[in-house]
Amino acid sequence: MFRILRRQKSGYALSLVLCLIGLTSLFVVLWKTWPEASSANNPFSAFWTLLWTEQLDLIPSFEFKLAYLVILGTAMLVSGVLIWVLSRQWFHLPAEEIVLFQCPFCKKQWRGHRNQELVNCPRCRKQTYPKIVEK
Ligand SMILES: [Zn+2]
Question: Is 94:135 a contact under the CB 8 Å cutoff?
Fold first, then answer.
């Protein structure tokens, strides 16, 4: 059997960075809203109101509401987790089904299933019928 682990390291690194940014954004939001929200009668609605009224002055003359940060942070966190899951994908293929392809345009070589026909080259993104250079 031939095992291909897709984009393992870069995938993990990217998902780690995304999760960290996501968590930091959410933490900043909590940190900014906590003092007011925790002392309100209804913490959740106070938190909700703060999200849409409080602003960060990261960029001058641009209204960056806390709610945007929540959306951004959540999106980053979700995509981080998704990328992490995708990076863990192992493909189990019988070795005899794997061949070395070469892109006729940029000469990039990669391994893939021999049944691949019209594919997009992983480097130059051109659609091509790759040449089998080694079995
Ligand atoms: Zn190419």
Answer: no
Cα-only R_g, the chain: 23
Ligand 1 center to 120 CA (angstroms): 8
> What's the 9 CA to ligand 1 centre distance in angstroms?
22
The pLDDT tens digits for 22-42 are: 999 999 888 888 888 888 888
The backbone torsions φ and ψ at residue 100, rounded to the nearest 5 degrees and listed phi first, read -95, 125
* Residue 93 Cα to ligand 1 middle (Å): 24
The partner residues of 120 in beta bridges, in order of sequence, read: 127
Give the distance (Å) from ligand 1 centre to CA of residue 129.
10
Torsion of CA 97, 100, 104, 108, to 10 degrees: 130
Q: Which of 84, 87, 88, 126 is nearest to 107 (CA)?
A: 126
Residue located via tokens 């189990």: 92
Domain positions in the chain are 2-90, 95-134
Higher pLDDT, 1 or 40: 40
Q: How far is the CA of 125 from the centre of ligand 1 (A)?
A: 6
